[in-house]
């Protein structure tokens, strides 16, 4: 009995030390740091509207059965093709360019500035990467060592498929400024980013960084990197405004009235980067269905849409191509202009020709 008790205590201590000392989990904000904010209660951030995720055993049992049964089309049969990307020494023209690096990671070239959105360049979205679902493409469109100086890195929230410890450690010396939602600065500070290079934003904050105007706008989601920090940090979407272009980046979000509110306040947008993928009916409140993705694009008054949050990792149970197929079909029905670049392919705003091939069907 004593031996069993000692083993249990040793396991509990090991788990505690792992959660406390393993740097990948980041750093929770100090208690009561954000208690004065209207959408913060009992140490947790709240969505604008009631957002329940069904997690009881009875409701989740069918999902568990789906996972155990598996889906042969959940991942591509072979590596997803990529287009090699070479970082130019400097932006040579005034046109806005966006380059998709898979999932929700983008390089935005706006008014001569280089901006990375949710740069997740790791092999798997997991605190222990060798156990996670591996990247479809096996490699990135570039070597991180080739990464030129970045004027600004913007994060939507702190989940592993968006905020990656290994990526921060490798790019932090090349980044002039980080902009993050409330509470996320603690993670970056623990990972060696100086506080004077980090700016935190609440919903509806408007700031100007590196000559680019940013607005932190609401999303309908949640946050957390460990067992004890659920909703301790904020999640958001972003508006990026330059001299000639305005872009909306949805981050992760369930469908809700915030899209229409954003469109009425700040639309129209030349381009929207809209979450599309890793959904399930059991968590539809925090991840849109593809048809809702198109509806959200219409709500924010977007002119052209790129579906994101797909094409890199399997985090749900649907076929890996289902998100983009459904989004393309919905866009055609609604008369929405949709752009479908390959990973590593650059889209130039103002161009008459946009990537629209169904390249995933050849895999």
Automatic annotation (TrEMBL):
Entries under InterPro entries matching the protein: Metallo-B-lactamas (IPR001279), NAPE-PLD (IPR024884), RibonucZ/Hydroxyglut_hydro (IPR036866)
Metallo-beta-lactamase domain residues: 114-310
Signal peptide: none
Gene3D superfamilies according to UniProt: Ribonuclease Z/Hydroxyacylglutathione hydrolase-like
Taxonomic superkingdom: Bacteria
Any coiled-coil regions, as ranges: none
Family matches, as Pfam families: Lactamase_B_2
Annotated protein name in UniProt: MBL fold metallo-hydrolase
Taxonomic lineage: Bacteria, Bacillati, Bacillota, Bacilli, Bacillales
């Amino acid at each position: 009995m004593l031996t069993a008790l000692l083993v249990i205590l040793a396991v509990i201590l090991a788990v505690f030390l792992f959660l406390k000392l393993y740097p990948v989990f980041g750093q929770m904000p100090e208690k009561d740091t954000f208690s004065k904010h209207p959408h913060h209660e009992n140490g947790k951030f709240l969505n604008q509207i009631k957002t329940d995720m069904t997690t009881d055993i009875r409701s989740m049992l069918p999902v568990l059965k789906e996972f155990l049964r598996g889906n042969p089309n959940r991942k591509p049969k072979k590596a997803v093709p990529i287009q090699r990307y070479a970082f130019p020494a400097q932006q040579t023209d005034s046109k806005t360019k966006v380059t998709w690096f898979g999932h929700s990671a983008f390089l935005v070239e706006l008014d001569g500035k280089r901006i990375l959105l949710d740069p997740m360049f790791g092999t798997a979205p997991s605190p222990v990467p060798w156990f996670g679902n591996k990247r479809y493409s096996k490699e990135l469109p570039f070597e991180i060592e080739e990464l030129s100086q970045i004027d600004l890195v913007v994060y939507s929230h702190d989940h592993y498929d968006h905020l990656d410890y290994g990526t921060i450690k490798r790019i932090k010396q090349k980044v002039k400024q980080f902009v993050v939602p409330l509470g996320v600065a603690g993670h970056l500070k623990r990972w060696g980013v100086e506080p004077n290079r980090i700016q935190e934003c609440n919903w509806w904050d408007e700031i100007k960084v590196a000559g680019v105007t940013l607005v932190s706008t609401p999303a309908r989601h949640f946050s957390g990197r460990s067992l004890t920090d659920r909703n301790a940090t904020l999640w958001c979407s972003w508006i990026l405004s330059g001299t000639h272009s305005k872009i909306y980046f949805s981050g992760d979000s369930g469908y809700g009235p915030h899209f229409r509110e954003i469109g009425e306040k700040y639309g129209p947008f030349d381009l929207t980067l809209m979450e599309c993928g890793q959904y399930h009916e059991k968590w539809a409140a925090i991840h849109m269905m593809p048809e809702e993705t198109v509806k959200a694009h219409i709500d924010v008054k977007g002119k052209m849409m790129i579906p994101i949050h797909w094409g890199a990792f399997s985090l749900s149970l649907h076929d890996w191509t289902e998100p983009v197929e459904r989004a393309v079909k919905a866009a055609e029905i609604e008369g929405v202009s949709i752009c479908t670049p390959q990973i590593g392919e650059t889209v130039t705003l103002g161009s008459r020709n946009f990537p629209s091939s169904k390249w995933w069907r050849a895999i």
